[in-house]
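Q: I'm teaching a short session on how sequence maps to structure, and I want students to see two examples side by side rather than one. Could you give me a first protein with its sequence written out and its structure tokens following it? Keep the formatting plain so it prints cleanly on a handout.
A: Of course. Example one:
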Amino acid sequence: MSGMRAREPGEVFGPRMTLFADMLSVGLATALVCLPVVTAPAALSTACAVLRGAGEGQPATAGRYFAALRRRLRAGDLGAGAVALAGALLFLADLALAGAGLPGAPLFAVVAAGIGAVALVVGLRACARPESLTDWPAAVREAARDAVRDVGGSALVLLAVATAALCAWMLVPLAFLVPGPLALALTAVHVRLTAGR
């Protein structure tokens, strides 16, 4: 994204504002595609791929997003969504059991929250990897390695999720725009890691 052109004379908005607007339109498209829930990993992965392409001079538009999603939506993407949904439901059930007052519940809640945070970071980092477009298991393996090698990036992913959740909690209509900035943050963390190698 460093190779963006400068603002032309008389142009009201520069290229960074254009990228911001494109990111919001991709985020809105991603939110719509995420509504069936099992499509969420594929939707977020496609958003990251489209935003990654913006750094290579390709347009980051909702039209390009839907075209990329149509080309890649397959059974493996829906399987990844089903696994993510099952993991989220298991995590919520574990927290409900911990809240029921079982013996050792506070320690269990802390351990469950830690495992959930690690799973969330690995899952989100997998969505940002290029391998997620064709091979989810490889993307998850590489994301797990990235999470261990780049602890700072993993902390940034958690911070991005916390910021997205806070924005959606403060103003519910923002929930439909949150996937764009989240995808941009995931893409930036991945680009930061690959640039540092």
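Q: Perfect. Now a second example for contrast.
A: Example two:
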Amino acid sequence: MTLQAVFVDRDGTLGGNGHFIHPRNFELYPYSLEALQLLKEHGIPIIALTNQHNISKGRATELDFRNEFDSYGFDAAYICPHEPEDGCVCHKPQPGMLQQAATDLGLDLTRCAVIGDVGSTDMLAAAAVGARRILVETGWGMQSLDKYRHLWYEQAEPDYIAKDLLDAAKWLVSIKKRTTPE
């Protein structure tokens, strides 16, 4: 299987603490840029996939986030600006952002992966479209596996549980190497 793209959650996966932090104050984990670069070096496009309902509250703009993702080297970004209760199709765990990316970029989502720290959003959205699921233990990851496991695990068991984004990227690269013909 050729990996067509990797979708990466922001808060708790790339950096931060799992809660909203304005892009101007957001700090990446020390290894995040290395992880993103590793994926890119192996020809794997990286796409940001994030719920940011604080946009609808006026605390930041979609452009703030797009500029942030551009500065990290993302190939594209899909950002849901809605409140969870708005009932939109894009707010994870709904798969709308993934489906829109598939349409926009010509992706087969069963040949993509989602890396995130929240089982009840990131992993459920990935499962809904048949994408590979990698849960990182950073951010809300450990709580997703322990305290909140009952909310999602049976429907969206991760294909891999990674220590962090770099571990996830290394795992995906190792799969790509094993499945790519010489």
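Q: What should students look for in example two?
A: Point them to this: The first helix runs from residue 32 to 41. Also worth mentioning: Helices lie at 32-41, 62-72, 96-105, 119-129, 141-145, 165-179.
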